[in-house]
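The protein record filed here.
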Amino acid sequence: MKRFDCMKLLAAKLKDELVVLSLGGSVDEWFTAAPHMREASLFQQQLGCLTPEAFGLAVGLPHRRIVALDTDGGMLFNLGILATLANERPTNLTVFIWDNECYQSIGCPPTHTAGIVDLEGIAKGAGIPHAYTARNLEEFERLATDALALNELHMIVAKVEPMVEPDLVRKQSDGFEDTVTFVRYIEKTENVSIIGPTEHN
């Protein structure tokens, strides 16, 4: 199963959600797959930080659906977030984990999920009942549809190939610009001031 194919299916289901995603090849894939979600997506978050940031957004904006697009490597950096999610149960948070069983951006050394480590099992052991694994597009679409329709915390591990789709639209902005764009989008859609007006000298 290809991550980009999953992203295209997921993008078609999203409208006014907020999305947080990781570094690496998934950046340009999501930028290409979901052009209508570019302002609503917080790109290039560090390993181990992504799902905690999505959790913070879910708590701060309980009326908005928050979607985390994490990776196996990123989740393994901070498994403690699963215990937090299990206890807090943010009903407006859906976590997707692109599990390609390797750290793709640094030459594909294997992650622990290439062995016997099971992220779905760890999540359920932590106390997250709606944790699932998708191994083909049909399973992914069914699980994603259910997760986005229900007002309950979900985590979906998508077993994907270690590859980056060719012929993508390349995102040219850097992390700082991405963050400002995302914050400005929240200001606009929530009618709030977060960083205030930009001063020009």
The first helix runs from residue 3 to 11. The chain has one domain: 3-190. The chain has a mean pLDDT of 93. Helices lie at 3-11, 26-33, 50-60, 72-77, 80-88, 119-126, 137-149, 175-190.
